[in-house]
Amino acid sequence: MRKKWAFLGLVISLFAMLAGCEPLMVLDPKGPQAETTANVIWISIATMAFVVVAVFGLLAYIVFKYRASKQSEDYEPPHIEGNPIVESIIVGIPIIIIIFLSIVTVKSTYEVEATPKGYEGQKPLVVYASSSDWKWHFSYPEENIETVNYLYIPTDRPLEFRLYSYGPITSFWIPQLGGQKYAMSDMVTTLHLAAEVPGEYMGRNANFSGKGFAENIFHVEAMPEAEFNEWVADVKATAEPLTEEKFNELLEPGHLGQLTFSGTHLEFLPPPEGHHHGANQSHEDEADPTGAHDEIEANHSDHQ
Predict the structure, then answer these.
(1) Nearest to 290, CA basis, from 269, 275, 303, 268
(2) 182 and 54 in one domain?
(3) pTM for the whole thing?
(4) I need a labelling partner for 236 at 20 to 30 A (CA). Which of 20, 39, 73, 190 fits?
């Protein structure tokens, strides 16, 4: 009786705890790339649930049908040969499941690597996202501004993040907008995202990078493009310029709050030359892998 009440209390406590939990961010997508990822997760969960239910159902059937019964002492069970149909089912069904999940995974991987669906004809907002111990630097070359530990983005516009690191390998991840991608010190990797719902999101480094890893997070705010343009104009008018000396200070290990600058560090400290292109990256960028030089030159021409 005590065991029964203890088990019942455990179940009630578990349900009470789960009732107070917020939905998993990866299952609450706010953009097309994240929605693709969430769909794959749900398909995987449904497939695994089907396997678990089928296996336990067959287990219960076998245990009941072939349970021990009273037999005479000289009883000998009959010799049973293998059944080709049963063996084919046992081997065939796992193969079919693996093929199905492989197709889903490969197809979704190409989708999340490419420009989000519905945004193919739009010019993306390019943001260079670089990490250092333990902070994130976001450079907007077209807008000629830079932020630290926070990211403002427009909704309903493709986003092209170009990732690299000034320290160990990190992982750029905004769970409600898409999957993670690594940022490395010797090359630039490209991540395509889009936000369809205005709001505040959490971003973080998803790869352990030392003792400050736990607080290596950044704030993301998605807003209509008109509000984004107003913010850019305000930053250009009020923010202090980012100098090479100041940026070198920012690279020192430690935690910082949110900072805003006019200008970017791309002018005096360009990103690495190597580039890992996305699934549909234009070959026009191969001559200048990062594209930073052309963007910086254009900004200088605009200011002149």
Answers:
(1) 275
(2) no
(3) 0.79
(4) 190
